[in-house]
């Protein structure tokens, strides 16, 4: 399903800074829309202006020109409380109140909704528990912030934003401190959240592989060109990703690292993940896996995993390390 209702519009927007009373334009000619129910990854090389645009969209810095329109209303006309009920933000800044508990920090997400007496309603309590559950941080709730690793703190900051329950969520490099499992988990969680709650989620990221697999759209910022917006796959096929990142050693046709296959050719018989990992080891050592070659390798998986090599006599080995030694 392709999401449609526009919730955020950037119109002729120019973002940047005022340095010594002079304007320093970082990104200009920005005309983009964010739609409900979609996860958009905002990508581009270091220093191109991703954080600058994100800070402008969430009102943390002023635009140099143009407009940010949120649900038909100009950002400049929204009160701080309206904005807090519309956009939740996870930035990369460090939290200063390390003595606060995880649960208290997540609960801060409800502050735009509570009155002067700061009394949580049953809906607030429900949202706090839901955010903790969705982000899988149950085991951390009673810890103090200073007791958390950078990765755990990152998930807690995302939980606070989820708890704020806004139609737009904006995150600046939310996977920066996470290990592989947590990176995949966080991106999948954001992608599911966009679908299940119809939120529009914009995240700046450098994770090209995960963005290509999970984003509904990519906003691609390159130096001196307007930001390009498209399906991840279209941006691969039309060469835009390649031209912005000038990828070296990453094969966009397969989504994998390019290998220098100059060592020789081998024929490989086998199937499933054993075949794929064998091919990976062979290619990493410069062997091109082809249909017919003098060196023939057969994967045997009956009693135990073995590789049967037919060339220069016959050999059976039980590790890929030994396989590479035999054929070299
Ligand atoms: N307060 C500031 N005043 C002046 N220039 C700034 C300021 N903050 C950032 N810049 C400049 O703005 C440009 C864009 O920075 P920004 O942090 O937005 O890039 P980015 O795409 O988020 O980079 P990265 O991928 O490394 O996080 C950089 O050239 C940076 O030096």
UniProtKB/TrEMBL annotation:
The keyword ATP-binding applies. InterPro entries: AAA+_ATPase, ABC_transporter-like_ATP-bd, Metal_Ion_Import_ABC, P-loop_NTPase. It holds the Pfam family ABC_tran. SUPFAM superfamilies: P-loop containing nucleoside triphosphate hydrolases (SSF52540). Keywords: ATP-binding, Nucleotide-binding, Transport. GO terms for molecular function: ATP binding; ATP hydrolysis activity. SMART domains: AAA. Residues 8-248 form the ABC transporter domain. PANTHER family: IRON ABC TRANSPORTER, ATP-BINDING PROTEIN (PTHR42734:SF21), METAL TRANSPORT SYSTEM ATP-BINDING PROTEIN TM_0124-RELATED (PTHR42734). This is ABC transporter ATP-binding protein.
């Amino acid at each position: 399903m392709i999401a449609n209702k526009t919730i955020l519009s950037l119109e002729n927007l120019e973002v940047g800074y005022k340095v010594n009373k002079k304007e320093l334009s970082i990104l200009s000619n920005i005309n983009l829309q964010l739609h409900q129910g979609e996860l958009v990854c905002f990508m581009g090389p270091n220093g191109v202006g991703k954080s600058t645009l994100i800070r402008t969209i969430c009102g943390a810095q002023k635009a140099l020109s143009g407009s940010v329109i949120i649900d038909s209303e100009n950002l400049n006309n929204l009160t701080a409380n309206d904005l807090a009920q519309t956009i939740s933000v996870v930035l990369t800044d460090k939290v200063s109140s390390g003595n606060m508990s995880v649960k208290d920090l997540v609960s801060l997400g409800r502050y735009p909704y509570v009155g002067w007496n700061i009394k949580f309603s049953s809906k607030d309590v429900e949202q706090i528990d839901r955010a903790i559950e969705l982000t899988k941080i149950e085991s951390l709730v009673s810890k103090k912030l200073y007791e958390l690793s950078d990765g755990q703190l990152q998930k807690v900051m995302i939980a606070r934003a989820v708890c704020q329950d806004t139609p737009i969520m904006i995150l600046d490099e939310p996977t920066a401190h996470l290990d592989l499992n947590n990176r995949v988990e966080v991106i999948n969680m954001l992608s599911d959240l966009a679908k299940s709650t119809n939120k529009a989620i914009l995240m700046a990221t450098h994770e090209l592989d995960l963005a290509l697999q999970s984003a509904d759209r990519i906003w691609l910022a390159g130096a001196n060109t307007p930001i390009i917006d498209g399906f991840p796959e279209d941006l691969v096929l039309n060469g835009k990703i390649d031209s912005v990142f000038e990828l070296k050693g990453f094969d966009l046709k397969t989504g994998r690292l390019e290998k220098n296959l100059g060592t020789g050719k081998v024929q490989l018989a086998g199937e499933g993940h054993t075949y794929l990992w064998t091919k990976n080891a062979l290619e990493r050592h410069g062997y091109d896996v082809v249909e017919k070659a003098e060196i023939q390798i057969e994967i045997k998986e009956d009693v135990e995993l073995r590789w049967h090599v037919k060339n220069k006599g016959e050999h059976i080995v039980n590790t890929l390390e030994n396989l590479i030694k035999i054929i070299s």
